[in-house]
Specification:
Number of strands: 5
Radius of gyration: 10 Å
Helix content: under 10%
Length: 55
């Protein structure tokens, strides 16, 4: 079970979107990845350990 919920504000811990604010929009159950939307149009999948709650 993920510690994130749809609608949560998150930021990535590495990669090209590091420290960018995003919103969790979907969970892909087959591989356990989380779809995060940044701004209005860009979205990427991340593993749970690549994300942290926005604080």
């Amino acid at each position: 079970m993920s510690s994130f919920s749809i609608g949560d504000g998150v930021r990535t811990t590495g990669g090209p979107m590091q420290h960018q604010y995003g919103t969790v929009v979907y969970f892909r159950e087959d591989d356990g990845t989380i779809l995060v939307r940044f701004g209005g149009s860009q979205q990427l999948y991340f593993r749970e350990d690549e994300l942290e709650h926005w604080a």
